[in-house]
Amino acid sequence: MTDSSPDLVVPDSGTTPRVPFSLLDLAQVGSGETVRDALTHSRRMAEFADTTGYERIWYAEHHNMPTIASAAPAVLVAHMAAHTSRIRLGAGGVMLPNHSPLAIAEQYGTLAELYPDRIDLGLGRAPGGDPATFSALRRTPAASEHFPADVVELQRYFAGTTVHGVRAVPGAGTHVPLYILGSSLFGAQLAAALGLPYAFASHFAPQALDQATSLYLREFRPAALPDGGESEPYLMVAATVIADDDAERAYEQLRVAKIQRIKFLFNRGRNLTTAEAEMLLDGPQGAQVDEMLRCAAVGAPDQVLAQLDDFAQRTRADELILAPLANDREVWFGTVEKLAPAPVR
């Protein structure tokens, strides 16, 4: 498969990135790896990104998924912060319906006190897992309905306000930067109404990308900042990336990723074999996965950089957050190396 995606057109030559690059790390457990192996790879990536110009790394909360080891983003942030010195670190995101705002304020407030001016907090309203996970977390699906109010409550804790007779300590006065995450118009509307930065999850759910980003920029209402100024719109857009000096190898890794996605989504109550998943690539299931990965920049490094530059311009993004996808660890880490904004020091 060597065709480029509809959204990420490959210009004739490479280009220098015009917006900051960041990384989204799911702490993916690769084939034949243990969770410890995956976390070691994540630390290696954080250490590299810290010295090569990446703006931030975010860790996404997922539960009950054997191939993803990022169930506890705050723990990962603490570990990676201890092994780095510059790069911003945060959740991309915390699924707020799974937690009380106070608990999150205390966790990320503690991190902000330990690592000043380096901690972000992205917030989503999805459960980050299946219904069984929601039950195990002692939550109910109705918790998602309180997401806007919970975001405001979290803001108040970070501002130092006493809420329900409780003050977040640590947390009060840290003003941890909040970002609203989403893949629908809901998150865009909320971010615009609260005057917060917005990050769109186009790396796996690009369907509403254009509508959501346009709505956010059109309806943004400035909010007061701790320094006395006002917030401005800040748009982050996510893209899946696979870069290799051998473009065919990069595309083969995309094919492997699509097969894995089919096996995850369409297991029909049992484990699909690779051969069975391959047979579905050219059917409706494959088309669904193609759509999920529509915002994928794949190929040789100069091609990928050109695709990403085109994508940032088209979406009016202030920052791109890149999600390396390759199953092959050499290609996975190589992608991060080859797209690094600054040379290795």
TrEMBL record:
Keyword flag Lipid biosynthesis: no
Entries under InterPro entries matching the protein: Bact_Lucif_Oxidored (IPR050766), CmoO-like (IPR019949), Luciferase-like_dom (IPR011251), Luciferase-like_sf (IPR036661)
Q: What class of enzyme is it?
A: oxidoreductase
Q: Which UniProt keywords apply?
A: Oxidoreductase
Q: What is its EC number?
A: 1.-.-.-
Q: GO MF annotations for this entry?
A: oxidoreductase activity
Q: Transmembrane segments in this chain: where?
A: none
Which superkingdom?
A: Bacteria
Domain Luciferase-like, residue spans: 21-314
Q: Where is the signal peptide?
A: none
Its family?
To bacterial alkanal monooxygenase alpha and beta chains.
Which PANTHER family does the annotation name?
LUCIFERASE-LIKE MONOOXYGENASE (PTHR30137:SF6)
Q: What is this protein called?
A: LLM class flavin-dependent oxidoreductase
From which organism does this entry originate? Gordonia hydrophobica
Q: What is the lineage of its organism?
A: Bacteria, Bacillati, Actinomycetota, Actinomycetes, Mycobacteriales
